[in-house]
């Protein structure tokens, strides 16, 4: 497969702070790559480096086979970008903003802009500074999608959008990849990435901890189980069971994440406590992330 | 600190020269120029450095703090957060006003210290000069302008309006108080301007005038009281978006169609057009003030006292130029004194300096630079487009000054050469471009708008003083060539027309600074926040 975005040993230091450490990453054509990590993990630094906003301390990056520094202008003809904590020109209307960026790109298909505005229910007649953060985000998404970019790079793109708009945004992302385009999406909202991403990279303290497909993460078989008992229970009983990861015991109630065999768990309970209710469901990425990567240590 | 440093420099220059040409001036003329009969180097330095540049600087700082106090918090969207705590609007406003007074007081204390230390270092006797009284007057008039800006900000919530209107009042006041006493029978008009109560009593010679200070202090108290009423009466703005003249025309059904083309598509057609449009309020304000003043000054020439005109014409041009006056016996000298020597550099440098400092570093502070550069546009193109916008605005302001001066000359029947006026305006635009490019360079190198503004203003002030004072001293006169201002008026373009060599030096300087800006901006990491 062809790597559309590729980094080799990409490193960025701010003085003594190591914001990004030796990042090797390939994002392939036609996929949605979710870049996950807590706040301050290095997601935005990665994006700003590959967009040539900041220069790496070491290593290199390429987009569509072109070096991100030497060919930065050419690369930008083929990308769309939504920065994190999006800021735009407050004195311009949404229409002016889109026109400005369209002019810098040498024109745009306005019927497609209108289509995007309609889908996102964006009001382009108001000044950006008078819009709520969610409505401002819609203008940001329109300007990123409007030139039908080959690569779409977005930093926390759905922040501020209401659930309906988030769903619409996810549809737009899926349509992009269906056309063979590539999406690089950073987020700390794992449920969002879970819905749209094909693969996930997890970054923590500047280090890439893991790259896995969403399917692989799910196949780890992690489940979340909630028990309701007739009488108060002791936590020690459950801690002995192999596969119990996280556990919360409050009086009659136990909530745990579990990747062992259900039979072992039920055998332990049987005869000790009366079970009133059991709820079990597949763990989401949030829980997978917290369970498997919470304790990964990077440099301080 | 910078003003105190310049005092050292000014006194150093004056110390080594023969001052008899000042003391030989007729009494009326000396009084007009604020020169004591027993003038010595200390008195001249205090008069030239502290009473004009120093006060304008201190008052500008107060103005800036006053405008930022309420309106600035609203613009940043932090006022609501502040009021989420158990503090009243009145409490916030009074705290801010108090901080302004304390900081201006701290600046004044440094000036007093400098005013005492500098003559001691240079062994210059200050005799019975009242340095403390002068600085006290400076402090009180600065607080007045700070209070005016606070009041306007509190009533309107518009920082730009508060600082713009106060700056216009300050500059007009400064000029009017210099102008009206020259006109026989019109001297009383200057009493309507606050600057009168700062220096009409000549505190450096006569000590504190408590009556005048009382007028300023009472006015300041009234302004702050009015600010308290204003901030409590109105709805607070959210993180603000200013409504500009273009916006209003765009919203008007009669002008919508044409304005959609001008204000809509044209202004976002390229980076330069958008940058120029972003500074439309600044351009309109500066352009309007320059047009108005340069028109009005013409007919005024007919009204000034013949005595002053006659005396003025008797002195060597160089001597008068040293103290900021040209030969007022001629219309050209009159225009140079009242418009081109100080007002034009200040106004033009404000225009180009603001664009230079805000256009790159401002994009970084507002976090829009990333989005802009995500488009297929080179960093160097952005720098060049920003400088094109700067050039456009400087040219427009220069054009309005040219038109105003020609109209003023026609109205006063002064018969000034249109070509020479044009040449002077071109040189003014070029010197403003040099300093605009300097602020662009600092902005491009650092990404810090405030550093760019203050750095450029400090350099301009120092180089202006350098050019004004070094020629007084034969040994140091040659060094004036190191100041860009030397290439602005030294050739006396209002009388002699364009000095192409000087224009070439200024153009080359501006282009050189632009080239360095391009390289520096191209090389560094962009800042994510301001």
Topology:
The complex is a heterodimer of chains A (300) and B (530).
Chain A: E1 3-14, E2 17-28, E3 32-36, H1 43-50, E4 58-63, E5 66-67, H2 72-76, E6 79-82, H3 94-104, H4 110-120, H5 133-145, E7 151-155, H6 163-178, E8 182-187, H7 190-196, E9 199-204, E10 207-213, H8 214-219, E11 223-229, H9 235-239, E12 244-250, E13 253-258, H10 262-269, E14 275-282, H11 285-293
Parallel strand pairs in A: 3-8, 3-9, 6-7, 7-8
Antiparallel strand pairs in A: 1-2, 1-4, 4-5, 9-10, 11-13, 11-14, 12-13
Chain B: H1 2-15, H2 20-23, H3 27-32, H4 41-76, H5 79-83, H6 89-122, H7 131-156, H8 159-179, H9 196-199, H10 203-206, H11 210-233, H12 245-251, H13 256-266, H14 271-278, H15 280-300, H16 306-314, H17 317-322, H18 331-340, H19 343-359, H20 361-365, H21 369-372, H22 379-412, H23 418-446, H24 449-469, H25 486-489, H26 493-496, H27 500-523
């Amino acid at each position: 497969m062809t790597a559309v975005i590729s980094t080799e040993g990409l490193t960025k230091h701010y003085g003594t702070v190591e914001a990004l450490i030796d990042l090797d990453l390939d994002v392939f054509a036609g996929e949605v790559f979710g870049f996950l990590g807590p706040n301050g993990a290095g997601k935005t630094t990665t994006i700003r480096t590959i967009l040539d906003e900041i220069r790496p301390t070491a290593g290199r990056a390429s987009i569509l086979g072109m070096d991100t520094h030497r060919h930065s202008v050419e690369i930008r003809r083929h990308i769309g970008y939504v920065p994190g904590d999006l800021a735009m020109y407050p004195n311009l209307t949404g229409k002016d903003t889109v026109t400005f960026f369209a002019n810098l790109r040498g024109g745009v298909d306005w019927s497609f802009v209108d289509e995007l505005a309609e889908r996102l229910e964006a009001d382009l007649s108001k000044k950006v500074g008078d819009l709520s953060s969610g409505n401002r985000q819609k203008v940001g998404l329109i300007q990123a999608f409007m030139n039908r970019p080959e690569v779409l790079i977005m930093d926390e793109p759905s922040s501020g959008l209401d659930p309906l708009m988030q769903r619409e945004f996810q549809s737009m992302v899926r349509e992009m990849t269906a056309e063979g385009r590539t999406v690089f999406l950073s987020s700390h909202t794992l449920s969002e990435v879970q819905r749209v991403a094909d693969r996930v990279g997890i970054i923590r303290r500047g280090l890439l901890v893991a790259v896995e497909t969403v399917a692989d993460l799910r196949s780890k078989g992690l489940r979340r189980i909630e028990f309701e008992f007739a009488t108060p229970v002791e936590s020690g009983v459950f801690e002995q069971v192999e596969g119990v990861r996280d556990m919360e015991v409050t009086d009659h109630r136990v909530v745990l994440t579990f990747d062992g065999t259900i039979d072992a768990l039920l055998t332990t309970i049987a005869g000790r406590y009366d079970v009133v209710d059991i709820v079990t469901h597949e763990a989401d990425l949030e829980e997978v992330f917290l369970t498997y990567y919470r304790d990964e240590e990077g440099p301080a | 600190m910078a003003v105190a440093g310049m005092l050292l420099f000014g006194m150093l220059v004056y110390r080594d020269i023969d001052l008899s040409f000042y003391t030989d001036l007729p009494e009326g003329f000396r009084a007009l120029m604020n020169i004591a009969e027993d003038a010595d180097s200390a008195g001249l330095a205090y008069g030239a450095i502290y009473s004009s540049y120093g006060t304008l600087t201190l008052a500008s700082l107060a103005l800036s703090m006053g405008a930022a106090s309420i309106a600035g918090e609203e613009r940043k969207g932090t006022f609501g957060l502040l009021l989420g705590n158990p503090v009243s609007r009145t409490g916030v406003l009074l705290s801010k006003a108090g901080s302004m007074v304390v900081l201006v007081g701290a600046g004044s204390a440094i000036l007093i210290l400098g005013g005492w230390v500098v003559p001691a270092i240079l062994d210059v006797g200050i005799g019975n000069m009242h340095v403390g009284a002068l600085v006290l007057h400076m402090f009180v008039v600065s607080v007045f302008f700070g209070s005016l800006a606070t009041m306007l900000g509190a009533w309107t919530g518009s920082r730009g309006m508060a600082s713009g209107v106060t700056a216009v009042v300050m500059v007009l006041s400064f000029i009017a108080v210099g102008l009206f006493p020259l006109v026989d029978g019109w001297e009383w008009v200057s009493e309507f301007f606050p600057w009168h109560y700062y220096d009409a009593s000549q505190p450096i010679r006569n000590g504190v005038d408590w009556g005048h200070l009382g007028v300023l202090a009472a006015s300041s108290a009234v302004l702050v009281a009015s600010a308290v009423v204003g901030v409590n009466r109105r709805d607070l703005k959210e993180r603000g978006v200013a409504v500009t003249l273009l916006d209003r025309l765009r919203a008007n059904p009669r002008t919508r169609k044409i304005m959609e083309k001008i204000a809509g598509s044209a202004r976002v057609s390229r980076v330069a057009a958008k940058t120029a449009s972003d500074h439309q309020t600044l351009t309109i304000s500066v352009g309007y003030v320059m047009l108005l003043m340069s028109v009005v000054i013409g007919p005024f020439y007919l009204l000034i006292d013949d005595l002053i005109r006659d005396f003025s014409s008797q002195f060597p041009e160089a001597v008068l130029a040293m103290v900021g006056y040209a030969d007022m016996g001629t219309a050209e000298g009159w225009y140079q004194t009242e418009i081109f020597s100080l007002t034009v550099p200040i106004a033009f440098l404000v225009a180009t300096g603001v664009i230079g400092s805000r256009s790159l570093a401002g994009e970084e502070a507002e976090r829009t630079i990333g989005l802009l550069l995500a488009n297929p546009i080179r960093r160097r193109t952005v720098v060049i487009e920003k400088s094109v916008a700067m050039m456009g605005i400087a040219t427009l302001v220069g054009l309005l000054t040219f038109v105003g001066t020609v109209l003023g000359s026609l109205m006063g029947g002064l018969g000034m050469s249109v070509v020479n006026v044009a040449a002077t305006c071109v040189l003014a635009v070029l010197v403003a471009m040099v300093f605009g490019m300097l602020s662009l360079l600092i902005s491009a190198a650092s990404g810090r708008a405030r550093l760019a503004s203050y750095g450029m203003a400090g350099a301009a002030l120092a180089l202006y003083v350098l050019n004004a004072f070094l020629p007084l001293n034969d040994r140091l006169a040659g060094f004036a060539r190191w100041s860009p201002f030397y290439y602005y008026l030294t050739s006396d373009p209002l009388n002699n027309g364009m000095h192409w060599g000087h224009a070439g030096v200024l153009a080359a300087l501006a282009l050189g600074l632009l080239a360095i800006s391009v390289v520096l901006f191209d090389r560094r990491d962009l800042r994510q926040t301001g």
